[in-house]
Each structure stands twice: as structure tokens, then as C-alpha cells.
């Protein structure tokens, strides 16, 4: 369950103020601005280097906004249609040197060569090496480095687990990504990917109820979801409608099954204890979804 975070804000006097805000309310721009404050005030990156990074970000953002405004001038880009920032025409500007949404990752790559190496290993398909490179980085004291390395680690472990049909590996992906969505959303621009990876890992484990509930959480609790991610989630939810559409009914059936097994004095790990774990997992996801809906309203 995501908690409200105290977001540092720089006042005109240069002093730091704090205000409580849920991570779901923060746009990629908001997170990037907080990250810039982190570079200057907390990480104490060399002033010349931090200024160069910030300047790169500001120039890239300005060029992106300029290209965006030019593309949609006179409402000619999408005649007869609504326009959203996630549309393909606005997802990337050829003139922009840096995409706003990737600034945190690109800055971490420049500041931490070992993180850049882990990304490059993953990109080149050397997944086992990437996993070993990302694992120690996920334990670093810098929350931005640790969170983004954890997400990279989950991506790599997911691919490895699917390739090897490794159920324990998929369980580790869920565990890692649950930590991210509960405590690290401030530090990652594409935090929705951690939520989606949980759903994908549940799919690999053939846990259809939890998978469907996770996609519902994704659509409810992530205010800046890219259009293609939302479309994938909605499509999968439709395919899972039998179980995900009636979660309480499904959990009720599981409970009846456990009650019957206990009546037959079958109390072992399989199938009774395993089914009890599924019940608790399903109820946890139902509670998480309800909390997300309450935050929304």
C-alpha cells in the first residue's frame, strides 16, 4: 500500500519546506523536480556537474514543449479527436536531447557508471550478468539509485524466470516490485512498470484472480499511465473477466474448498495450506484495490 510522502519544496528564500502528497499525484515533471533538489541538497553532486545535468534537462524540456505546441497549434494535429499527452505524436520530440520522463534514469547512468553497465548488459541480452550487476545497486543508500536498480533487477529476473519457467523467480519479481510500489514510487518516473510486472508475474504463476486485481490497481492508482500500458491492462482485464470480475465470489469458492478439506482432515501443504495462501493473497489485493479507489475519490 503506497503511503503519503513528505515532498521537499525549495522556497524562494532557499529554505526547504515539506508537504504531504501521495506518490500517485506526482507527475513525471514533479518527480524530476524533486530529484533535481535531491542532487543539489542531499546527494551533494559537484555543483558544476549538477548544473550541467539540470541545464540538459531544462533545455530538453523546453524543446519538447516547443515542439508539442507547434504540432498542436490550431488544434490541427488531431482533428475531431481528443488529445492526450501520451499520444504517439507527443511521446518524443526529435528536437529534444532529453525526454523529461527519462531524465532521472539518464542522470543516474551518468552519475553511476555501474548502473549504466547494468542497463547495457540487460539491453544486450546478458541477463544473468545484468542481474548480478543490478543486485548490489538495489541495496545502495541513495534511494533513487536503489529504486531504479530494483526495477531493473525485477525486469531482468522476470525475463529469466519466464525463460526458465522458474516459479520461485516469478515470486521474487512480485516481492521486489511490491516493495517498489509500497515505498519507492517517488524515486521512479515509470513506477507503473513495477505494478505491471507484478501482474505479469501473477500471469506466469497462473494466478488469474491476483493478476486481474493487479491490473485493476494499475488502472486505478496510476494517474499518469501511458496510453499503451492502459490499453494492455484493459485488454487483459477483459480476458480475465470471469475471475477478476467477481473476485469475492472466487475467494468465497476457495474458502468453501478449504472448509471441505479441513472437514476431511486434510491439513497438509498441498492442497489446503496452498489454498489458504491464495485466499490471503486475493484478499490482500482486494484491500489494496479498495484503498486505491478511496484515494481516487
Task: Characterize the structure shown.
The chain is mainly alpha-helical and about 300 residues long. About 70% of the residues lie in helices and about 5% in strands. It has helices at about 30-40, 45-70, 90, 105-110, 115-125, 125-135, 145-165, 165-185, 190-205, 210-220, 225-240, 240-245, 245-265, 270-295; strands at about 5-10, 15-20. Strands 1-2 form a two-stranded antiparallel ribbon. A hairpin with a 5-residue loop joins strand 1 and strand 2. Helix 7 packs antiparallel against helix 8 (about 165-185), helix 8 runs antiparallel to helix 9 and helix 9 (about 190-205) runs antiparallel to helix 10 (about 210-220). The two termini are about 15 Å apart. The model is unreliable at about 10-20, about 75-80 and about 85-100 (pLDDT under 50).
Write a concise keyword list for the protein shown above.
297 residues, mainly alpha, two-stranded antiparallel sheet, 14 helices, globular
The overall average pLDDT, rounded, is 81
**What's the number of extended β-strand segments?**
2
Instruction: Note the beta-strand portion.
Output: under 5%
Helix count equals 14
Report how far the terminal alpha carbons are from each other: 16 Å
Give the radius of gyration.
22 Å
Profile the largest sheet: 2 strands, antiparallel
Helix content: 55-70%
Strand neighbour order, sheet with most strands: 1-2
String of helices and strands: EEHHHHHHHHHHHHHH
SSE-based structural type: mainly alpha
Unreliable parts: 10-20, 76-81, 85-101
Shape: globular
